[in-house]
Amino acid sequence: MGEITHFVAMPFDLTEDGLVAGEPFKCASPAAAIERAKGFWQVLGHAGAVAFVRVGYPESTTTVLRAFGNVPDDLLRS
Predict the structure, then answer these.
(1) Residue whose C-alpha is closest to residue 25's, from 16, 12, 42
(2) Which has the higher per-residue pLDDT, 76 or 1?
């Protein structure tokens, strides 16, 4: 059986408590996740957004594809 792969875009909003993650949005491809994240940031006015790919289940690895605007620093560390 092959590995499960999810492409996800997730917005972040700035609150009194700092950056808070919004609802993740599953996408069909890496390009779609990047475009959705860019739209969250540029068009919908979120503080930032990130596009990432998650591979595997139940053990998984997550790789950030692109980040836009303000996102938590721990997401960007390798």
Answers:
(1) 12
(2) 76
